[in-house]
Amino acid sequence: MTVVTLGVHIVDVLARPVESIPAGQDTHLVEQVRITAAGAAAGTAVDLARLGVPVASAGAVGDDELGDFLLMIMARHGVDVSGVVRKSGEQTAASILPIRPDGGRPSFHVPGANLGFALADIDPAQVLGAKVVHLGGMDASWGLHDPAFFALLDQARAGGTIVTMDLLSNMPELMPAAKVFLPHLDYFLPNEEQALMITGAATAEEAAAALLAEGLTGALITLGAAGSLVATGAGATHVPALDVLVVDTTGCGDAYCAGFIAGLLDGRTPVAAAELGTAVAARVAGGLGSDAGLENAHELLSH
């Protein structure tokens, strides 16, 4: 496969708009409910497939009905799921997301089988044969905080593979562990809060400089409605967000990563690839769920 996304796989159940949780046994009617493949590996894989990029995903799900659904929906979108292992007796990771009218997304989450995903579950040939390996959610993939996995990434990079990484959470206690991956990456794509926590910097610009000092080719810090900051050895560039009506912010980071990776594979500069990521994220923000608005998304690559 051209891209392997490796890490967190989640089933999202979303409802909108939700202004409050009903008291007692009360019922509130909503406009829309969806169930989607999500997570920093699975969601990015689906978005890449919708962009027309050949992609395989590697991770862990349970041997339950949610796992059946997740594999089915990813395969239906065109993702090779042969690298996703089933963990007997484990629950597939899942989130319930009541989406607020302004697009905000509080969540109820169970991490499930993601916590058991480890190096023994990975086919090294799949990693070594990819043009890009995207690490999704290494802050929550504790079984991969393994020197042997770092060595595999280094071997892949020595063979020409580009390694990118995005995180899953904004939990401060997980940032030090995520930082150990930095020497084994080419591009890191955190959000602003994650970047500040992982570096201890006061601003996104300072964080980007600190991340580049770790040996990265590029640091791309997403800034929500303010767009993103793209920093490479050539300097730092602010890429503005597109003006869209936000329905749901779920999966916008995954969409940005997918667009950026697709742009790199298309031969674009990091800034131009980030602009493509911004366009993909804008489409996702306009609908409900991590793959919303990506019908005919491959057309974005021709712009």
From TrEMBL:
InterPro entries: PfkB_dom, Ribo/fructo_kinase, Ribokinase-like. One of its GO terms (cellular component) is cytosol. Keywords: Kinase, Transferase. It comes from the Bacteria. One of its GO terms (molecular function) is kinase activity. GO terms for biological process: phosphate-containing compound metabolic process. Pfam families: PfkB (PF00294). Gene3D superfamilies: 3.40.1190.20. Residues 14-294 form the Carbohydrate kinase PfkB domain. SUPFAM superfamilies: Ribokinase-like. This is Sugar kinase. It comes from Acrocarpospora corrugata.
